[in-house]
Structures are given as structure tokens and as C-alpha cells.
Amino acid sequence: MRSGIAGPASALSCRIGAGLRAWHSFIALVLLLGIAVVSSGTARAAGDRIEIEQAAFELKDDGYYFNGDFDLDLKPRVAEALDRGLTLYFVVEVELTRSRWYWFDEKAVNAALNYRVSYHALTRQYRVASGNMQMIFATLGEAIGMMTHVRDWKVAERNTLRIGETYAAAVRMRLDTTQLPKPFQINAMTSRDWTLDSDWKRFTYEPR
Q1: Which residue has the higher pLDDT, 42 or 70?
Q2: I want to staple 55 with a disulfide (CB 3.0 to 4.6 A). Which of 30, 123, 153, 171 is the partner?
Q3: What value does the mean pLDDT take over residues 150-171?
Q4: In sequence order, what are the beta bridge partners of 60?
């Protein structure tokens, strides 16, 4: 007749089984977290749709000029809203700062270049306006190409910067959601489709 009390082998087997179940649960949790991290990273990459390919300043006789190239991937939902009559606003921002040990840093240059992009269904044309300039394009790709290749944008007068000094430069491009109608502003706060901006590109510049 067998005793109702488990022997050493049975107890060991139970402990091993419990340990294996705990280990499997741990592995499942790690895999789940790993998937969450990968998904989060993918979402961030998908939301960062503007890349800065190059940015540089040039000193000319009458001042300092900026030249830059950006890679802008307009998301399908945003492109569809544009084709349905929504006007989009983009801004390129440039900053030049000089460090001072005795006081706050000097913000020597703080400039913004604004673009307004619209589509006219009757003519089936895209229009890009900036200041007093307005250009018409047959395709959205051509309109974006105009915005993303910034040439000879004057950001400061010649006497603004000090020759030989080192300045911290910062450049970025973004969709200005504050210019959108209120319903789209609310949507932009909750949907990554409307998160169209680049990180600040930072480098040093020394006028010569």
C-alpha cells in the first residue's frame, strides 16, 4: 500500500516543473517586451519623416546665407488632406549661438523660412508660396522638391557675426501644425501621421 506522502523524487519533479513554468513565463515576458521595444522604435522611425541631408552657411558681400537639403516623406493621410483642399505650412528654422563665459549665450541669429503648400483642384496644380514668392508645380513631388532644396536664403547681415568666432549652429524643418484648422490641430496631437519634423541638426560654424 502506497503512502499519500510524496517522496523526494516526486517533490523534486514538482520543483523542476514549477521552475520550468516560471522560466517559460519569464521568456514570454522578455519576448513581449522585446516586441514592444521594436514596435516603439519602428513607430519613432516612421514618425520622423524629414531628414537633413546637408546644411551649410556661406558668407557673401552683403551677409550670411544658408543652403540646405532635406528629405521629406509626406505621409499618405497628409497628402490626401492636401489634395482635398487643406493648406500645409512648413518652416525651416536656423539658429546661431555664441557662447559667453561671463554671461548668457548670445543668440546671434534666429531665422525662419516659411512655406505654404496648397492644391487647386480646378487647375490640378500645386502651389508653394514663401513671402512674396509663389511657384506653381504640376506634381506634388516637384512642389516638395522646391521646398526641400533651400538655396541662398539670407539669414543675417554681414556685421551680425564676428569673424574668427565659433558659433553653435542648429537647423531643423517641420510641419507647423499650429497653422492648421482646429480639428486638424487636435488630430495632430493624437496621430503620428501629422508628426512631420526633423531633429535639430547641430554643428559648429566659424565665419572666415
Answers
A1: 70
A2: 171
A3: 96
A4: 63
Q: Is 7 helix (H, G, I), strand (E, B) or coil?
A: coil
Place 4 in a pLDDT band, splitting at 50, 70 and 90.
Answer: very low
Per the listing, cell 516543473 goes with 17
Write out the DSSP string of 32-84.
Answer: HHHHHHHHHHHHHHHH--EEEEEEEEEEETTEEEEEEEEEE---HHHHHHHHT
CB 61 within 8 A of CB 158: yes
Please give the full DSSP string across 140-166, using - where no structure is assigned: HHHHHHHHHEEEEEEEEEGGGS-TT--
Q: Answer whether 143's CB lies under 8 Å from 116's CB.
A: no
Q: Domain map of the chain by residue range?
A: 1-47, 51-205
Query: Which pLDDT band, with edges at 50, 70 and 90, does 67 fall under?
Result: very high
Give me the pLDDT at residue 15, please.
52
Terminal-to-terminal C-alpha distance of the chain: 100
Q: How far apart are CA 7 and CA 25, in angstroms?
A: 27
